Amino acid sequence: MLVVAGCSGSSTRSAAAVHRVRKTHRTTTTTSTTTTTLAPSTSTSATTAPFDGLRPGDSGAAVTTLQARLAELSYDVSPDGQYSSATTQAVMAFQKVNGLGRDGVAGASTLAKLTSPVTPGALVGGGGATRVEVDVARQVLFFYKANALYRIVSVSTGSGERFCVDGRCATAVTPGGSYRVSGKVGGWQTGQLGRLYKPSYFNGNIAIHGALSVPGGPASHGCVRVPMNSADWIFGSLPVGTPVYVLNGSNAPAPFSDAPPPTEPPTLAPTIPPTQPPTTSTSTTTTSTSTSTPTTTAPPGP
Q1: What is the pLDDT of residue 286?
Q2: I need a labelling partner for 164 at 20 to 30 A (CA). Which of 29, 34, 126, 263 fits?
Q3: Sign of torsion, CA 170 173 178 181?
Q4: How does pLDDT run across 49-73, given as a tens digit for each residue?
Q5: Domains of the chain by range and CATH?
Q6: Most confident region among 85-99, 162-176, 257-271 by mean pLDDT
């Protein structure tokens, strides 16, 4: 009798079975030893191949060349010769667009693809001179200025997993559709689901925001996470009303479909203090009177 337990890999055997195994082991000791001696030799030789490429922590002219090429292709990185997190995210965005492994490491296949990369086209023709296109399938954000591609940024959208908050449950999705930025918050904002850096809300409580963790695949509760090195300029380039298109995503409603958290008040026109007309004097041939006009407050602006 042989009983296998769950996923633990353990087993329970009868005394007779154990005896047979022990007997067999004593008679085949020499053959078993020979087999186990050869296996490590083959495995070791397969793992000693040298790494041919660039990875986080590297620095120098080769890194600068890599960064310059990525920047030329509109990926969000500045050539400084340091393979930092910003470079890792730019490499990951390039890998996503070009259908490569999403590890942020510029290995041989990634470096080779840089010589003949995919040139992404607009997903929404006539979508607006300044707009955002979020491709959920490829996990990238395309930012357009003056109707031309300005930057390609790696993102992480809804994970597709079920989650619960305060007794309410929902599925973490970033719904597809056409939206506009409806509210913004400068700096960090803490909500029920975590911290958001400079969120720009566009679909209820779903926002484009900076995050400390932007992995290669979907991982958020529904928001569009962007790397911290991209968060400031994206926030500054997304005024209220900017079109945001989410493509190749689920048609499910936003998680909870709540209104966004309180946002910064709109910028108001400067208040003009009310003026008081000067006291006027009306003269006639027979008498002189002084008429004072009462102070009035101007109504608030629209």
Answers
A1: 39
A2: 263
A3: positive
A4: 788 899 999 999 999 999 999 999 9
A5: 61-113 (1.10.101.10), 131-247 (2.40.440.10)
A6: 85-99
Alpha-carbon span 59 to 148, nearest angstrom:
32
Q: Show the tokens assigned to 236.
A: 């500054």
Provide the pairing of β-strand 206-211 with 194-203: antiparallel
- Please report where in the chains the tokens 């599925």 appear, as a residue: 171
**H-helix or E-strand containing 197?**
strand 194-203
Instruction: Please state, rounded to an integer, the average pLDDT across all residues of the chain.
Output: 78
Kindly list the distances between the CA atom of residue 105 and the CA atoms of 51, 66, 91, in Å, as whole numbers in the listed order.
11, 11, 7
Question: To which residue do tokens 């070009």 refer?
Answer: 98
User: Three-state SS for 95?
Assistant: helix
* Contact predicate 193/221, CB 8 Å: yes
Count H helices, E strands: the chain?
A: 6, 16
Range with the largest mean pLDDT of 6-15, 43-52, 269-278: 43-52
Distance CA(47)–CA(187), nearest Å, equals 46
pLDDT in tens, 135-181: 999 999 999 999 999 999 999 999 999 999 888 999 999 999 999 99
- Place 255 in a pLDDT band, splitting at 50, 70 and 90: confident
Give me the phi and psi of 206, to 5 degrees please.
-95, 130
Helices 85-97 and 61-72: crossing angle in degrees, nearest 10, is: 50
Q: Which residue's structure tokens are 């490569």?
A: 100
Q: Which residues pair with 168 in a beta bridge?
A: 165
What are the helix (H) ranges across the chain?
15-27, 29-46, 61-72, 85-97, 108-113, 228-236
